[in-house]
Design goal:
Elements: H1 3-8, E1 24-34, H2 42-56, E2 67-78, H3 80-84, H4 90-97, E3 105-110, E4 118-120, E5 135-138, H5 154-164, H6 226-240
Parallel strand pairs: 1-2, 1-3, 3-5
Antiparallel strand pairs: 4-5
């Protein structure tokens, strides 16, 4: 199954409300792909992990999802082809580098095109294609990176949300069931930039322009909702939680 097709597939059909936050620590392996001197430094990797824990812990706004990330290791691979086109070389790259089971997040750092900052697999794909499980992001989107407006590490936050089973807040536009989360108001189209307010659907509630699962500048992203946390946890226990 191609990466493009996987990115377009919809999620499981259910809507959940809030829940009592339960702590889950996710093992994390980061795979740094380089082309000569180009690529992510280890210091940026550690800053990225801190950004993940702050975002998923509600430290920058919104709900504490209960999820935390424990960096188990960093690998380094010099491969210009993988670095320049991780979509085309996704399968050999992941088959070579991926480690752990469904509960282990593998984050690959390479360089993508200007139109794509990252992509992820969904949890319910793991059984069919376990070796392709993981998240790929553009290394330039990490904290302090050179991508203007997208350099606080929130591309990884967004894509890992997909890895947990979240959809975009604008999924299905103004039509039910939206993103299958009850407390993210309907959104007619992706947000962009850094608007002060937006209301693109007739249903109650302004667009969730500050939600990590919308499209917007990093400085305007700040939250997950309790409903999103509940969906992530249900997906985790269904598809990713270790049975050992």
């Amino acid at each position: 199954m191609s990466a493009d097709l996987r990115r377009r597939l919809a999620g499981a059909r259910d809507r959940r409300g809030s829940r009592t936050v339960q702590s889950v620590t996710v093992p994390l392996w980061v795979h740094v792909i380089k082309d000569g001197a180009l690529g992510a430094p280890d210091a940026a990797v550690k800053q990225q992990v801190a950004a993940l824990n702050a975002a998923y812990g509600g430290k920058v706004g919104g709900a504490d999802t209960g999820f935390r990330f424990d960096l188990k290791g960093i690998t380094h691979t010099a491969n210009a082809q993988w670095f320049r086109d991780p979509v085309a070389y996704e399968e050999p790259m992941k088959r070579k580098l991926r480690t752990g089971g469904p509960e282990t997040l593998n984050l690959y750092l390479a360089q993508l095109s200007q139109l794509v900052l990252g992509y992820a697999t969904y949890p319910y794909w793991y059984k069919e294609e376990p070796q392709l499980d993981g998240v790929v992001i553009d290394w330039r989107s990490m904290p302090g990176g050179p991508l203007a407006n997208f350099n606080r590490g929130y591309t990884a936050v967004h894509e890992i949300g997909h890895w947990f089973g979240l959809l975009h807040t604008f999924e299905n536009g103004c039509n039910e069931p939206g993103d299958f989360v009850a407390d993210t108001p309907a959104e007619g189209s992706p947000g962009s930039g850094c608007p002060q307010r937006r209301d693109s659907c007739p249903a109650p509630g302004d667009d969730p322009i500050h939600n990590f699962m919308d499209y917007g500048y990093d400085r305007c992203m700040s939250e997950f909702t309790a409903g999103q946390a509940a969906r992530m946890y249900e997906m985790w226990t269904t598809y990713r939680q270790s049975r050992l």
